[in-house]
TrEMBL record:
Superkingdom of origin: Bacteria
PANTHER family, per the entry: FATTY ACID SYNTHASE, NONRIBOSOMAL PEPTIDE SYNTHETASE
InterPro entries given in the database record: AA_adenyl_dom (IPR010071), ACP-like_sf (IPR036736), AMP-bd_C_sf (IPR045851), AMP-binding_CS (IPR020845), AMP-dep_synth/lig_dom (IPR000873), ANL_N_sf (IPR042099), PP-bd_ACP (IPR009081)
Domain Carrier: 507-582
Name under which the protein is recorded: Amino acid adenylation domain-containing protein
Protein source organism: Anaerocolumna xylanovorans DSM 12503
Protein's GO biological process: amino acid activation for nonribosomal peptide biosynthetic process; secondary metabolite biosynthetic process
Length: 582
């Protein structure tokens, strides 16, 4: 581990000294060298120290799009010795306001496009100093800078990133320099990152996967590419961009990885996968790493190179200065190859949740024997004899859906804010016909579900909006007079009849697939075709079939492989695959 006097900003300065003239950031035809990035972030540091009158500690919120300013602001905050709180600019603004209320931010760094949002933040009094900075690269390069050396140490909270909270309020996870430096050191050496590498910053700034996209590469003298939004969601365009830009290392979510296996990339050297359970592996010309870790343990705590496929692909071995245990409900260690809760110890652990002692007491504990601090993840896992970890889902109300950790109680709390709702229960159903976030509700007065969804879209990210709703006169109770969720599930199945739902679902899937095929193949408007007709017979080629599958996977939030479809390229077959994988 690094000397305790070495901080993130010092490590970055070392990279600037070594790679100053090299490109640090690239977007469209523009590049920013390490020296220019250093200069601009120094100016931001100076401005922050001035407006905050050299106070020793502060939290600075950052609301920016996918631009150079994201990196400039982040480094400027760190150089000033402060903490940054990244906001997801694509998230519901009301949710960002809730985050600011918890963050206790002193100031906001943003861009001109978010002027209205900044004014609303000031209006609501969510900034301690009521200071907002709106800057751009060209203006920063014209300003005078002076180097400032903060007295911060590795104990400094570098960032606070927010995750879904069961109270309805997002939880702020405080991560220190020492945890990030340990993460960077492990990743750089075990995966192998150098100044010769190039990567794309694909992850959202408001999520901790962005830490992987930034720090290991900046500290290694590598080049980070930022791309347009439309290129981030289209695998074909993304892959073409990666090939054209000679991207050598890429981190992506598991869902994106499953799609990426359908395309060929001759220049990529290493692919790092994190987010959900890896369903399958295919040998490629590049190395594939599987990784696991909660936000509370600084991005990842295990990683391994995958060399063969299996029905239970492991997530890897612990990184440096990290210990992982499998425990029972009482916290006792379980034997190897026995399932239990995954617990983490080590320098990787977050300091805790900001202003949330209840959650800290619930998840962070000291081991009574060793005195070491331990984080209880809520994830179910199993450890092999050689230390390789496997993951199997959750033990609590938190779910993993579309790559996101979601607290069902946060959805419920927001639903209860709608004036016509008397009570609500949110469930996650995993069925053959698909995975659903379902809400049962009791009403004070008639509820217009369409209007309720519009209301929720202002409070929650799109992926947290329930797909199915059903009205009940009252909720059933168990013997302890608590809401009987099992009975509610039963009533849902009775009301909708999952068998008939499956049949109607088949028809719905078929119609949606036909619509996609018609658009991709540019078929004559109104032209119908049988579900057993092959894609190629209708005029489709391999590129069109890949385009179609990308559309299908996005439409149904699934992972259909190119090879699966080609074996029997019909709507009929595709309906079966979508139902199984959805």
């Amino acid at each position: 581990m690094e000397n305790e006097n070495i901080t993130l900003q010092i490590k970055f300065k070392q990279a600037v000294t070594k790679y100053g003239k090299s490109a640090a950031l690239h977007m469209d035809q523009y590049t920013l060298t390490y020296e220019e990035l250093d200069y601009c972030s120094d100016v931001i540091c100076n401005m922050l120290r001035e407006i905050l009158k050299d106070q020793k500690e502060a939290t600075i919120a950052i609301l920016v799009s996918n631009s150079f300013m994201k990196f400039i602001y982040m480094l400027g905050v760190l150089k000033a010795g402060y903490t940054y709180a990244p906001l997801d600019y694509k998230s519901a603004f009301e949710r960002n306001l809730k985050i600011l209320a918890v963050a206790n931010a002193d100031a906001l760094l943003t861009e001109e496009r978010f002027t209205d949002e900044a004014e609303e933040v000031i209006k609501r009094g969510l900034l301690i100093k009521n200071e907002v900075l709106i800057e751009n690269v060209s203006e920063l390069l014209k300003k005078e800078r002076r180097e400032f050396y903060s007295e911060s140490t590795q104990e400094r909270i570098a960032y606070v990133i927010f995750t879904s909270g069961s109270s309805g309020i997002p939880k702020g996870v405080e991560v220190q320099d020492k945890a990030i430096l340990n993460f960077c050191s492990s990743v750089i050496h075990r995966i192998g990152i150098s100044e010769k590498d190039k990567t794309i910053a694909l992850s959202n700034f408001g999520f901790d996967a962005s830490v992987f996209d930034m720090y290991p590469f900046l500290l290694s003298g590598a080049e980070i590419y930022l791309i347009k939004e439309e290129d981030r969601k289209d695998i074909i365009s993304l892959n073409q961009y990666m090939i054209k830009s000679c991207i050598t290392i890429q981190c992506m979510t598991t869902a994106l990885y499953h799609l990426f296996l359908n395309v060929e990339n001759p220049v990529l050297e290493k692919l790092c996968v994190i987010g959900e359970k890896m369903l399958f592996y295919r040998k490629k010309n590049y190395r594939i790493f599987n990784m696991y870790g909660p936000t509370e343990a600084t991005v990842l705590v295990t990683l391994t190179e995958i060399r063969q496929s299996s029905s239970d692909i492991p997530v890897g071995y612990p990184i440096d200065n990290t210990d992982i245990y499998i425990v029972d409900k009482e916290g006792n260690k379980k034997s190897l190859r026995e399932k239990g809760e995954i617990c983490i110890e080590g320098i990787c652990l977050a300091k805790g949740y900001r202003n949330n002692q209840e959650e800290n007491d619930k998840h962070f504990h000291e081991d009574l024997i060793t005195g070491k601090r331990r984080y209880y993840t809520g994830d179910i896992g199993m450890m092999e004899e050689d230390g390789n970890l496997h993951c199997y889902g959750r033990i609590d109300s938190q779910i993993k859906y579309r790559g996101y950790r979601i607290e069902l109680d946060e959805i419920r709390k927001n639903i209860l804010q709608y004036e016509s709702i008397e009570d609500a229960v949110v469930l996650f159903l995993e069925e053959e016909v698909g995975n659903f976030i379902v809400t049962a509700y009791c009403q004070k007065q008639p509820v217009d579900i369409k209007q309720l969804k519009i209301f929720l879209e202002k409070q929650l990210p799109e992926y947290m909006i329930p797909q199915k709703w059903f009205l009940m006169d009252q909720f059933p109770l168990n013997e302890n007079k608590k809401i009987n969720t099992q009975e509610i599930r039963k009533k849902f199945y009775e009301k909708y009849n999952m068998d008939s739902l499956g049949k109607s679902e088949d028809k719905d899937i078929e119609e949606r697939l036909k619509s996609i095929w018609s658009e991709v193949l540019a078929l004559e408007k109104g032209k119908d075709f049988r579900a057993d007709e092959e894609f190629t017979v209708l005029g489709g080629d391999s590129l069109q079939s890949l385009t179609m599958l990308l559309r299908v996977n996005k439409e149904f939030n699934t992972q259909v492989l190119f090879e699966e479809f080609i074996e029997n390229p019909t709507i009929e077959r595709l309906v079966e695959i979508v139902k199984r994988r959805k």
